[in-house]
Amino acid sequence: MHFGLYSEAGIIESWPLDDDAKKWSRREVDWTDDSDEFKSQYWSLAKSFNPIRIDAGKWADAAKEGGFRYLIFTSKHHDGFCLFDTKQTDFKTTSPDCPFSAHPRADILKHVFDEFRAREIPVMPYFSKPDWHSPDFWDNGGVGGVSVRGPMYKPSENPERWKRFCEFTKAQLLELATGYGRIEGLWLDGGWLNEEEGTGIGIEDMIAAVRKVQPWVISIDRWCGGPCEEVRTPEQTVPKEPMDMPWESCITIGNYWGYHYSDNYKSPRRLVHMLVDIVAKGGNLALNVGPQPDGRLPREALDRMAELGKWLARNGAAIYSTRPAEPWRKGDWAFTRNRHSGTEYAIRLWKEGEKRDGTQSLPAKSPAGVKKVVHVPDGAAVPFKVSADGASLEIDLAGLKERLDPIADAFSIVR
Whole-angstrom Cα distance, residue 91 to residue 43? Predict the structure, then answer.
């Protein structure tokens, strides 16, 4: 979940502040062409940020109903605006300069994490390593200068200033680890801060310090490689094949990460098919939902989440606690297996308007060894025979009729 100052303006999150990124990131900034004027206006959004209708309990209920199993939430994005009560800066929701500071839920991160954990949904903070508001990263928030995604100076030429920034970052990570209950991981963005580019912040030392408090924490130092990138995070894409390490595809439920006033939301069919494709390749789907400026979730997003949850309620056995199973993807079929029981599943992805009854060819591995095929949602046995060439199963779906799902159906394969 991406939430912050950018949600208030309905523009791309943080990136319009970066002069190098202005060609693609400022396309919604149609009221001024003056870079300094825009940056000043952006920073002033902290003085009007006031999501008074926020109720993370409703968010968590919708997530639970939608079948989500963990939460990643922005503690701060690249702009440095903190949604938690950090003691390292006044650029935060709990600062007197922010009108939301008077609200009982002003420490948004605490409110969100408490509500999700209360519903047994584990949590982890998204945290940007770059902080474009920090005076030890950018001069004057980029106003009056050329701002780029990295620091406005070479750390090697001003090591004391860089050291202050690193200490600031470590202090904030320890605040997250000590003041916000159990977290399952640290989801660290800003991979351009790394040793190879001369902008390393000592992330291994920071993770070690966090693990002295919460030793189970997963480190997701994305795009950096090395020992602290324990999970790969392909963004807005799905790999063509399974990966040899834990991974999650990070994909938006609409077109944007933060809230946009005229976003286009993905259809339930597209979301289910995407989820199945990812899981069949061994990954998780980190599906981003951006709250509105008033703190509520968009109605379109809630509708999509509910539809996803309905499908998972019927077919989730083929999704949760599974691993890829050969041939993992073949045509309109995807294959998984339960990592505990070894149960095999085949999921048929239906196209819009496709005829779903009659005989379907199921390209299972070693068809001759299959003893039973079961329709997962209702436990009904499905008649089948091995094809003449021995390469697949011919399953007869005529008896299922209206019980078939218009989006996708899961079947278990018993050997």
Answer: 9
